[in-house]
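Thread: "does anyone have the structure for this chain?"

Original post by V.I.:
We have the sequence but no experimental structure in hand. Need at least a predicted one for the grant figures.
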Amino acid sequence: MTEKIAKILKSVIKEDVDMGVSASERFGFGHYSSNVAFKLAKIVGKSPLDVAKDLAVKLSSNDELEKVEAAAPGFVNFWLKPEDFQKELAVILKQKDKYGKNNNLKGQKIMVDYTDPNPFKEFHIGHLMSNAIGESLCRIFEWNGAKVVRVCYQGDVGLHVAKTIWGILQDINNFPKDNAKLSEKIAFLGKSYVLGSQKYEDNKNAAEEIKEINKKVFDKSDKQIDLLYKKGKKWSLEHFDEVYKKLGTEFDHFILESSVISDAEKIVKEFLKKGVFEESEGAIIFPGEKHGLHTRVFINSQGLPTYETKDLGLAQKKMSLEKGMTSSLIVTANEQNDYFRVVFKALEFIFPEYAKISKHIGHGMLRFASGKMSSRAGNVITAESLIGEVEKLVEAKIAEQKLSEKEKKEIKDVVSVGAIKYSILRQAIGGDIIFDFEKSISFEGDSGPYLQYAYTRAKSVLGKAKGEKVKPSLKLMPSEVSEVEVMLSRFSEVVERSGKERMPHYIATYLIELARVFNAYYAKFKIVDAKDEYSPYKVALTSAFMQVMKNGLEILGIKVPEKM
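Reply from O.Q.:
Generated one for you, tokens below.
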């Protein structure tokens, strides 16, 4: 629609300027609006309002438009004909699950590295944020025609592993049996990690023991430590798989830190000889100050590789796994922004072509409106515990509804995850998220359940229509369109914008507005009425709404329940 308006404007504007067409925010002020008069005013020496009036007069005879008006201080407002929007309904009903897809990114191969939890540590809410954002970005790219490769990089070696193993050794008699529940095994690992982390900070002897364990994990020189390492790693990865399944994410590649270390060390030593890295006090560093950044250690004084070195090996691994990448994105907390600036600068000297396509997408922190949330592992709040708390609230909310236990479980699972994902995705990537438990599960207002409820309401309307034998049809259309038709026609444009700017919140904001206008329509009109000649059209409109809502939620990685 915006392209159509821009083309119409270009037919009467000789100057080479951006047409500045966008959807009108208020329904009574045109379907679309342009600010081009402000740009032309500087060129022709008139006021923006006079230019806007001149354009409105020139366009008033255009057969493709219902109406054109100038509005202070210089906007041109456009009304399209009802059939333009009604034709779009036919497209929605025909394309169904494919409606909104485009080929803007066709030919691009985008790798997205996200979630990235560490075995031996909790899957915390930071990983949950990375997952929600990363998965939604993947889906946005796919809806814009790109080939997407999902990668999860899991840190199965390092000091955090040694801290956990040290903690395990302090309580080895309570080490879970092989037949124990996975939840019990994960709880034991979490408790052990907290103990190891605390002692590493305030007990010198424990710190030295942990460092020694870290070496033994690397060189596999101790049978007991090796056995504890293998079991703990296995438990962690099994637990992560459970979480990925709950969140609806399927990765193409899982890359473990242990698989990149050897090649990573070779890279650093090779480029040490070439002057990219330098030796300093027994360590190998990248002199970031020379490039306007900060210096970071890549191999420490004990001869062990740091995260920085492993990220070089990770880059090489990614290139070997997938040829022809056009973009390689990493989604983590924005507290790592400076870290990645240094790593990417080092990559410019080592893998320059890969460095050109690499980008870090930093997100904020998840905070709670109520202040704090209790956690079972020190000050770490796990994704599992957050989901569990929201599930309890959803469960209480639907307890009195006449639903089977199976239906209640489905609603609890789908609505709780949807509530959390929407809370994360509703605002632009980068800022902190304030999570409010009660608002997140509200069936009214700005929430995931509100969107899911709007979908299931439309679904129930279609069920009623089927029962009363009112079939959807576009043969007889009303002379005027509602806000619902107008909003539905904008979905494709929102998908395009989200793809261009890499921002899921445009989808979230659009869906809330779409749900709002449909709910208003539902309240105003009786949709299913066998005596109403326009009822088949209203049912078709409801079906189109349900389809677009489903497609939008799919992009956000939010499932739709059958009932609510």
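V.I.: this helps a lot. The first strand starts at residue 21 and ends at 23.
O.Q.: and The radius of gyration is 28 Å.
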